């Protein structure tokens, strides 16, 4: 009950019921090296240590933004799937790799921890992790993932267990960003889009973000914000990655293109039950969005395994390119 008041203060009106019951979603420890939520390791020996010079400069920066609600902690693995489905297709990138756009516009000092995580100067405490082969002097363009945590979680923890989980770090081939500004809270869909905008703008100014390969994603509360912002700014994104969340509002119907979506849901999720996510998925398919889904025999808790085994690999598909 002690979480009820702050949760109701930051949740979107349509999603208050989902938020009110899960103010501590996604809180996983960051030690060890397990792929399940609850302890999606960040110690161990992977990642890039020490500090790393400055990034290059040239070109323009990107933008983005969003909102959210709801959740619980992440401690379960993926105990059995109830099915994986896909629908539609998208040939936005069928003519070959789209132009990546211009590179970074300023030099940025990067101070990494032992696993390669570092803060970015977006004014909200956002954090990032670069691909291991990123060259600060002569960078090439990389796909980029902008991520939003669930209620009660924090920027770094979500980066460690979802955006750049332990099992993916040795081969990570994208720039991972966890948006800051709501540590320990739910996202506010009416107020927090500028936070996402600032994170994408700063990462694009400092590093070579492939402008046609930017994906936005989130868990629970963060997923609500990710859906909303992506639909409102569809031209900026190749796709959306969603773990245990839902669609609220009518923004999907007015999206400028049918961007790619991949989502997971739990058969025992009390916050976003099958009746909710199945209805959302049917609505998105009905609107023509190419959607890949996975239904798991789990509750609401998030899992690193859902990200590294199902969601994150979608970004490598040829069709995940913005128009």
Largest sheet: 9 strands, mixed
User: What's the CATH superfamily, by name?
Assistant: Alpha/Beta hydrolase fold, catalytic domain
Q: Helical residue percent?
A: 10-25%
Number of helices: 7
Task: Give the ordered list of helices and strands.
Answer: HHEEEEEEHEHEHEEHEH
Shape: globular
Low-confidence stretches: 1-24, 28-53, 56-81, 91-96
CATH class: Alpha Beta
Counting helices, strands and paired strands, the structural category is: alpha/beta
Distance between the termini: 46 Å
The average pLDDT score comes to: 80
Write the layout of secondary structure elements.
Elements: H1 4-10, H2 16-20, E1 52-54, E2 81-87, E3 109-110, E4 117-119, E5 127-129, E6 142-148, H3 155-163, E7 175-178, H4 193-206, E8 209-219, H5 221-232, E9 239-243, E10 260-266, H6 274-286, E11 291-296, H7 304-311
Parallel strand pairs: 6-7, 6-8, 8-9, 9-10, 10-11
Antiparallel strand pairs: 1-3, 2-11, 4-5, 5-7
Question: Could you please describe the fold and organization of this structure?
Answer:
There is one protein chain. By secondary structure, the chain is an alpha/beta fold. It has a single domain, classed as Rossmann fold. 21% of the residues lie in helices and 18% in strands. The protein is built from seven helices and eleven strands. The chain has helices at residues 4-10, 16-20, 155-163, 193-206, 221-232, 274-286, 304-311, and strands at residues 52-54, 81-87, 109-110, 117-119, 127-129, 142-148, 175-178, 209-219, 239-243, 260-266, 291-296. Strands 2-11-10-9-8-6-7-5-4 form a nine-stranded mixed beta sheet, with helices on both faces. It has a two-stranded antiparallel ribbon with strand order 1-3. α3 links the parallel β6 and β7 (175-178). The longest helix is centred in the middle third of the chain and has 14 residues, at 193-206. The protein is globular and about 50 Å long.
């Amino acid at each position: 009950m002690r979480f009820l008041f702050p949760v109701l203060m930051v949740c979107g009106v349509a999603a208050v019921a989902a938020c009110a019951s899960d103010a501590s979603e996604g809180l996983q420890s960051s030690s060890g090296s397990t792929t399940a939520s609850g302890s999606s390791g960040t110690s161990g020996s992977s990642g890039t240590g020490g500090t790393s010079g400055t990034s290059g400069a040239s070109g323009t920066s990107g933008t983005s933004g969003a909102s959210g609600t709801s959740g619980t902690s992440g401690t379960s693995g993926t105990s059995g799937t109830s099915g994986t489905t896909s629908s539609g297709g998208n040939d936005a990138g069928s003519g070959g790799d789209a132009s990546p756009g211009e590179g970074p516009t300023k030099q940025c000092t990067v101070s990494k921890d032992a696993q390669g995580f570092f803060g970015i100067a977006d004014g909200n405490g956002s954090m990032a992790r670069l691909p291991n082969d990123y060259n600060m002097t002569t960078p090439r363009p990389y796909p980029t993932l902008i991520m939003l945590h669930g209620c009660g979680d924090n920027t770094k923890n979500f980066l460690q267990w979802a955006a750049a989980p332990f099992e993916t770090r040795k081969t990570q081939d994208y720039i991972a960003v966890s948006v800051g500004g709501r540590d320990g809270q739910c996202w506010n869909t009416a107020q927090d889009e500028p936070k996402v905008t600032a994170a994408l703008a700063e990462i694009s100014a400092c590093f070579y973000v492939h402008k046609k390969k930017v994906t936005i994603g989130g868990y629970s509360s963060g997923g609500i914000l990710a859906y909303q912002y992506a639909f409102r700014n569809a031209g900026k994104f190749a796709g959306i990655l969603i773990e245990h969340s839902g669609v609220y509002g009518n923004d999907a119907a007015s999206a400028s293109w049918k961007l790619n979506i991949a989502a997971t849901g739990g058969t025992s999720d009390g916050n976003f039950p099958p009746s909710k996510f199945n209805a959302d998925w049917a609505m998105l398919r009905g609107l023509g969005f190419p959607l890949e889904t996975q239904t798991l025999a789990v509750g609401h808790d998030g899992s690193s395994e859902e990200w590294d085994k199902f969601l994150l690999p979608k970004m490598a598909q040829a069709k995940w390119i913005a128009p």
